[in-house]
Amino acid sequence: MVSPSSSLSSKDKAPLAGQFILLYEALIGIGFKVQTRGQAMLFVIRFTDRSAQLSVRERYFDAHIAWLQRKRDVIKIAGSLREKHSDHPVGALWVVEAATEDDAFSIFADDPFWVHGLRASVEIHSWSLAFSDMLAEASSPSPAA
Asked: I want to staple 94 with a disulfide (CB 3.0 to 4.6 A). Which of 55, 78, 117, 140 is the partner?
């Protein structure tokens, strides 16, 4: 992990930039629109799992995936978090669209992983793009070469 006060070498910046680009491309691919007043906002939801509850993840995994599929209109990106790629999940990260923070909190109330106690904690953060026109520019047609 890199702290805000540490300096990054160009070698360290490349993977971070690559991760941002992948997230950005995923958002474009699912048709995110620029946020304006009165419309849905974006929130990031980060779950931390109970380490002793791996059996809950295994038992309810299929039900959780089916539940996520039904919520695709509001859960735009979802996936597990791991310390290392080959490790068991330690939580999850979602990008959701909701009118209010309370609506974002209510999204996961009936998620099988939440209902059956896999999640130890949850954080919800309002999320916005660095530049309000990023998605508009990226989704407009490129000029012909």
From this structure: 78
Tell me which DSSP letter residue 51 carries: G
Cα four-point dihedral sign 107, 111, 116, 121: negative
pTM above 0.85, yes or no: no
Contacts 24+ apart (CB under 8 A), 25-29: 26/77, 27/76, 27/77, 27/95, 27/135, 28/135, 28/138, 28/139
- The answer, yes or no, to whether residue 36 has pLDDT greater than 50, is no
Place of tokens 């978090």: 81
112 has pLDDT over 50: yes
d(CA 117, CA 112): 8
The arrangement of strands across the sheet holding 41-49 comes to: 75-81, 91-98, 41-49, 119-127
- Among 65, 75, 126, 114, which Cα is nearest to 97's? 75
